[in-house]
Amino acid sequence: MPSTAGCWKPPAAAPLIAMLSLSGCAAGGSDSGGPGACPPVVTYTTAEQVRAAREVEALPEGAMLVRMLSDYAVLRDQARACG
Hints:
mainly alpha
């Protein structure tokens, strides 16, 4: 058995990967939460919402844009809760 068998060291990238993985679990941001910390929520008229609904309904089945709009809706809800 070689003499280095008991001296295994993790690769240099391992601590960096571990740090990045753990930083994703941070409970809060690094901002102080001062004015402007919450993004504004754009208000759309009823007519604009009806037009958008018609346009979305005209999209082909499984359109990526529908998924992106769903993500945008979640962001809008989070921004509303923030303010």
